[in-house]
Write a structure and sequence with these properties.
Blueprint (H helix, E strand, L loop, with lengths): L6 E3 L6 E3 L7 H32 L5 H28 L2 H30 L9 H22 L2
Antiparallel strand pairs: 1-2
Helix pairs in contact: 1-2, 3-4
């Protein structure tokens, strides 16, 4: 039996290669999306560190440089959100469900914990200042725990 494959010409010597590249499996696409998402998250972390620490350690609170760092952080943050969107779009239905459930739980916990946290800070009911870093830690732990739970629940 003869099989028909689509080929494309790759160079002048008439060497032919299959049209579909062998590395385009679901697993390799997911790995590439995870790496892309990781890079965007790392870039956003670096941009946020630059924005937060630059005025004090690098440019002596110069407003122009601080505004440029803020704009850069926002631009990288938008790139990270789009990378997250692409990552979610390429997941299978079950993985997408686990991720979206984890994101929803994280949003709920952030809202439920964040409002009382700021009220307690405003009326000095806690011995420290309610900083956004505490909320980021709570959100990260909530997402990690709910994601692990969801992944194990659907095995």
């Amino acid at each position: 039996m003869v099989s028909i494959k689509l080929y494309i010409k790759t160079n002048e010597v008439d060497t032919m290669t299959p049209l579909k590249q062998p590395g385009s499996t679901y697993k390799s696409r997911t790995r590439a999306n995870v790496l892309r998402l990781f890079r965007w998250n790392a870039a956003w972390l670096a941009a946020s560190a630059l924005m937060a620490l630059g005025p004090k350690f690098l440019w002596n609170k110069a407003p122009l440089f601080t505004l440029v760092a803020v704009a850069f952080d926002i631009a990288v943050g938008i790139g990270m959100v789009l990378a997250n969107k692409d990552y979610l779009a390429d997941l299978d239905e079950l993985q997408r469900k686990v991720q979206l459930n984890s994101m929803g739980i994280t949003l709920g916990v952030a809202l439920i914990a964040g409002v009382p946290f700021t009220v307690m800070d405003k009326y000095h009911l806690i011995p420290f200042h309610a900083d956004i870093a505490f909320m980021l830690i709570i959100m990260s732990l909530t997402f990690a725990i709910s994601n692990l739970y969801g992944t194990r629940h659907y095995r």
